[in-house]
TrEMBL record:
The UniProt record lists the keyword Oxidoreductase: yes
Pfam families hit by this protein: Aldo_ket_red
Gene Ontology terms for molecular function: oxidoreductase activity, acting on the CH-OH group of donors, NAD or NADP as acceptor
Lineage, broadest ranks: Bacteria, Bacillati, Bacillota, Bacilli, Bacillales
Family of the protein in this entry: Belongs to the aldo/keto reductase family.
Domain (NADP-dependent oxidoreductase) ranges: 19-262
PANTHER family: 2,5-DIKETO-D-GLUCONIC ACID REDUCTASE, NADP-DEPENDENT OXIDOREDUCTASE DOMAIN-CONTAINING PROTEIN
Marked site positions, Lowers pKa of active site Tyr: K79
Positions bound to substrate: H112
Keyword list, A-Z: NADP, Oxidoreductase
Active site: Y54 (proton donor)
The organism of origin for this protein: Candidatus Cohnella colombiensis
Protein name, entry field: Aldo/keto reductase
């Protein structure tokens, strides 16, 4: 699979989404966020993932506006938080996000978590935003197969992306297969397991390929066709996380990484969360 930092996936509606992006979860609003996004854009990243919960949308937008990279080349994702879910409140939440970002449109808008009895109305509001041209693509985050099935019973526009926790210890094979069948792009958050990459196999493969364990894991994601958004605030790490395109994992090594799966979550369980 020949990939580059410019490689994209095509979503259901034809929109092109970069395979690799920068996540800014727990990146402090202001200088820290601006500097991280600036470093990513300078390194060649063209996708930035934020959310209203992260409280750093303003910094993300500022860095993009101040960049020499044309706006149409940057893919910006944000998300509606749980307490804002519902039809009218989602429309209002989007207006607030757009005001903070100070961008004319958002490339991808996601339902952050499947809040029972609310996510259908939330998504209905997103369909309106999409039809109004305020967002180029819509989708969900942290949805299990049954959440997707429930949503698709009534939605008019199939979700284009499902952003979930996915990494070698949580390979999500059933969910991945379901989304592939439905044409829904899987995107991975916390791809590096919150830094818990001191695993003998990953160390072995890092030596074999002359890479870091983190680079091995990110390359594994890309070769599975998964969009991924590693988070960092350090320019050198941001650059390192993008240095994935001068090697390819052999099929047997891909399978060995798959076999690390323990169904282990470091984040909340989408079927049992209280926020």
């Amino acid at each position: 699979m020949v990939l580059s930092l410019n490689s994209k996936v095509e979503l259901l509606n034809g929109v092109q989404m970069p395979r690799l992006g920068l996540g800014v979860w727990r990146t402090q609003e202001g200088e820290e966020t601006v500097n991280a996004v600036r470093a990513a854009l300078e390194a060649g990243y063209r996708s930035i993932d934020t959310a209203s919960l992260y409280a750093n949308e303003h910094g993300v937008g500022q860095a993009i506006r101040e960049s020499s990279v044309p706006r149409e080349e940057v893919f910006v994702t944000t998300k509606v938080w749980n307490t804002d879910q519902g039809y009218e409140s989602t429309l209002a939440a989007f207006e607030k996000s757009q005001e903070l970002l100070q961008l004319e449109y958002v490339d991808l808008y996601l339902v952050h978590w499947p809040v029972a009895d609310k996510f259908k109305e939330t998504y209905r509001a997103m369909e309106k935003l999409y039809e109004q041209g305020k967002v180029r693509a819509i989708g969900v985050s942290n949805f299990q197969i049954h959440h997707l099935e429930t949503l698709m019973e009534s939605c008019r526009i199939k979700p284009m992306v499902n952003q979930v926790e996915l990494h070698p210890l949580l390979t999500q094979k059933k969910l991945l297969a379901f989304c592939r069948k439905e044409g829904i792009q899987i995107e991975s958050w916390r791809p590096l397991m919150g830094g818990r990459i001191d695993i003998p196999l990953l160390t072995e493969l890092a030596t074999k390929y002359g890479k870091t364990a983190a680079q091995i894991v990110l390359r594994w994601h890309l070769q599975l066709g998964i969009v991924t958004i590693p988070k960092s605030i350090r320019a050198e790490r941001i650059n390192e996380n993008a240095d994935l395109f001068d090697f390819e994992l052999e099929p047997e090594d891909m399978n060995r990484i798959d076999a690390l799966n323990e169904n282990q979550r470091f984040g909340a369980d989408p079927d049992n969360f209280d926020f």
